[in-house]
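Q: Given only this backbone (336 positions), what sequence would you predict?
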């Protein structure tokens, strides 16, 4: 059991999410940086967190912590691993290493400060956090009050039950294999596949989108991350959109919004949709962030700069397959 002494800015229970329910108005949710949570689960012998929208099971649930983490008291022995953003973690006041399995004894207090690098930290615990499943996932979707602990962020006084785990002492000191990079190369370069409405933007608009350094707005969360930069040029809309859609230059007839889709309302301030994306929207989407880079943009803090790089859809799928295969290979090696 874990007792929450202080909840942090926004600490939620997350796993790989619940894809496949957009038609019911339910986004996938899950870890914004799936790779970071997957690394933590790997270190403590849990089921891995799969890539966004994967058909794989959601893996063991852990905690996602935004900008400043919680303070937690363990009432039982546990093995933990900390990944993602560095929030200066301490155990009974002493620094705790990240990217390493650490044994926590009953009665010890794990505390976090403000981020030193990144935006979202992850706490994986051997056996995972045991809360009721909602549509086969424990992921928290706050706007819908679904999943996690009562569909909300953690607060003081909460108690978290832990699942069963293997021998804890064998995990202590376990570190990541060298083949797995704990932090991405080019963390401020976000790869995208152009479309589905890139045809509405002029060549100059596309060139601008890919050439400038965008800044992440403070008006950003797990639903969408707003960007600040120049206006993007659009073609004049065809007659059917003028007739059937809204009056704005980037308005379209509402269609599905993919996770990672980049809407551009009015051609200004693009919005990158996160794992709690709306199900549909009426603005042109110039591009879609590849699933393997959703974690990158999720680790940027307001005011950070980023640049987009266009790749082909086949290459995006290959990157995701190779990343997932490397995680599964590492998990198999650790079990042997």
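A: Predicted residues:
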């Amino acid at each position: 059991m874990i007792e929450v002494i202080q909840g942090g800015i926004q600490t939620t229970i997350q796993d790989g999410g619940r894809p496949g329910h957009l038609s019911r108005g339910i986004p996938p949710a899950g870890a914004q940086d799936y790779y970071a949570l997957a690394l933590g689960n790997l270190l403590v012998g849990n089921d891995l967190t799969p890539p966004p929208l994967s058909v794989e099971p959601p893996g063991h649930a852990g905690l996602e912590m935004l900008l400043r983490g919680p303070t937690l008291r363990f009432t039982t022995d546990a093995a933990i691993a900390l990944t993602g953003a560095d929030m200066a973690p301490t155990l009974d006041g002493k620094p705790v290493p990240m990217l390493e399995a650490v044994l926590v004894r009953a009665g010890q207090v794990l505390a976090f400060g403000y981020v030193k690098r990144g935006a979202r930290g992850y706490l994986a615990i051997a056996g995972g956090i045991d809360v009721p499943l909602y549509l086969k996932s424990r992921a928290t979707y706050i706007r819908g009050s679904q999943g996690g602990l009562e569909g909300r962020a953690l607060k003081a006084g909460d108690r978290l039950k832990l699942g069963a785990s293997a021998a804890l002492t064998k995990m202590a000191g376990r570190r990541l294999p060298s083949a797995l990079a704990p932090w991405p190369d080019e963390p401020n370069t976000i790869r995208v596949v152009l479309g589905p409405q890139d045809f509405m933007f002029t060549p100059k608009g596309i060139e601008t989108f890919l050439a400038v350094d965008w800044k992440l707005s403070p008006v950003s969360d797990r639903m969408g991350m707003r960007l600040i930069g120049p206006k993007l040029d659009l073609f004049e809309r065809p007659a059917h959109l003028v007739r059937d859609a809204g009056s704005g230059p980037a308005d379209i007839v509402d269609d599905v919004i993919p996770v990672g889709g980049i809407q551009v309302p009015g051609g200004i301030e693009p919005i990158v949709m996160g794992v709690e994306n709306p199900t549909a929207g009426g603005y042109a989407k110039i591009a879609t962030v590849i699933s393997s880079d959703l974690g990158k943009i999720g680790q940027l803090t307001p005011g950070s700069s980023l640049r987009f790089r266009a790749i082909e859809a086949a290459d995006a799928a290959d990157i995701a397959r190779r990343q997932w295969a490397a995680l599964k290979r590492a998990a198999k090696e650790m079990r042997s």
